[in-house]
Amino acid sequence: MGAMQTPTLISLALYFILMLGIGLYAWRKSTEDSEGYLLGGRNLPPAVAALSAGASDMSGWLLLGLPGALYVSGLVEAWIGIGLFIGALANWMIVAPRLREQTVSYGNSLTIPEFLANRFPDRAIALRVVSAVIVVVFFSVYSAAGLVGGGKLFAASFLDEPLLGMSPYMAGVVLTAGVVLAYTMVGGFLAVSLTDFVQGCIMVVALVVMPLVVLFDDGVGTVTTTLRDIDPNFLSWFGGLSAIGFISAIAWGLGYFGQPHIIVRFMAVREGGIKTARNIGMSWMFVALIGALGVGLVGRAHVALNPGITLDDPETIFILLANTLFHPFVTGFLLAALLAAIMSTISSQLLVSSSSLTEDFYRLFLRKQASEREMVNVGRICVLLVSVAAIAIAADPDSEVLGLVSNAWAGFGAAFGPLIILSLTWRGMTGSGALAGLVTGTLVVIAWIFSGAAEATGVYEIIPGFAAAWVAIWLVSKVSNGKPNTAVA
Question: Which residue, 130, 166, 170, 462, has fewest beta-carbon neighbours within 10 Å?
Fold first, then answer.
């Protein structure tokens, strides 16, 4: 892969300008008060909400981590995508309509921690503080995963040429963070959602075009034969897959119920738009996942058929194909799709982290009477602070996107998944039960990771974490003395 050519840089520059322009538009439309800055006034069109949820969900792992896993192990890794699709559909059907309604009825809650506090007033302070800490910590890691993707893009494209006085990897991390910061700090939730919509469109086009071009160039029969020559089980759904591996792959879908940057879109969609948003969002996700699987599979065949091509990092197969198969101007568009995947998720995570810091710390403990303008400005400062932490975590060029994402995804899924589902559907849940589930899910995931149990058993940490949190909520709610709220839809 050679250095970026001028047409490629022009394409990327145009993309950056477009994102900043959307940020300025949103700044003029919806940053007068906290509801506008944090939720876009709860008036997102269904299509914008759907693609925003999808684009912020998929992140760089869709174009880096998942194709890289398929490149190494074959079709068996597709079960992660299937599990995610099932989980996303269940999330739209179970959580979305209830969360949209109940966050309004419970004090017009603007954040997930605030909703939990309003839902369980007997444990309001503890729930807001603990959930906000979890949001900020895990999102710092999750945002770092996105910045790693930006760094890998620049490192693979510029090789060893210094940029801005830094290595290409670090320059990519800083530039990606800088552009995201600019439009997120200026335009808030509306800017994030509108840029997500545009980025979602770019992503799905790129994921459809790239595998088709490779198949046309190399031939369907040749690609299939080559993959089977590499490994007879490469195109097998179950080749070498154990029962534990299958369950762990499918279990990725459990994480959807507890991802604050995704479910906050449900809170923001305009009234009556959930069903339409669900249909659009799931259609987009289906096409995007098929494209990502295709990139990994046909990419492995293309490298095998071209001995002159070398690939040191499987997670950069999308970048390699973009640089070697297309005109430089089109390459810029394809790399913009990768940046779109990365930036859409980072911006959503930064904003959710900021909302927790402003609403659940600053307003709660420091300035209860703060004006709306002050809260918006504090939110912008918090976006900056979280991004600095993410840059520090992403500074290691050997970080793996899928590894960082899997840890953060499991943390959120176990901490918030059972909590959100049961708080929306079970009348008998208490504040003590909610707090117990939140803490238990988090601690079990962390212990599972750092004890080495995940590697020793092959069991993805979200499984024990999710189960433990669910049991803790049920058990403590049954034995606690608190009176449960009964206004559950």
Answer: 166
